[in-house]
Amino acid sequence: MASLSNSLIARGAEAEIYVADFLGIKVVVKKRVSKPYRNPIFNKMFIESRTRTEAKVLSELYLAGLPVPSVILVDEEGGVIVMEYVEGSRLSDILGTLPRETIIDISGSIGKYAALMHNMEIYHGDFTLANILFTRSSSIVIIDFGLAGYSTDIEEYAIDLHLMSRSIEALYPEFSEIFTKNMFEKYKEYSKIGGENVIRKVSEIRARGRYVDREVRKAILRERYIG
Amino acid sequence: MSTKMCFEIPVLVPSTKGSLVVFGVESTSHTFGVGIIEFQNNNVCVLANVSSQYKPERGGIHPSEASQHHVNVSNEVVKRALSEAGISISDIDVVAVAVGPGLGPCLRVGATLARFISAYWGKPLVPVNHAVAHIEIGKLVGNMRDPLIVYVSGGNTLIAVQKDKRYRVLGETLDIPLGNLLDTFTREIGIAPPYIVGGKHAIDICAEWSSEFTPLPYTVKGSDLSFSGLLTAALRIAREAGGDKTKLGRVCNSLRETAFNMLIEVVERSLMLTGKREILLVGGVASNTVLREKFETIARFYGVRYYGTPPEIAGDNGLMIAYTGLLQYLYGRIVKPEELVVKQRLRLDEEVYPWLL
Ligand SMILES: Nc1ncnc2c1ncn2[C@@H]1O[C@H](COP(=O)(O)OP(=O)(O)O)[C@@H](O)[C@H]1O
Ligand SMILES: [Mg+2]
Question: pTM for this structure?
Answer without folding.
Answer: 0.93
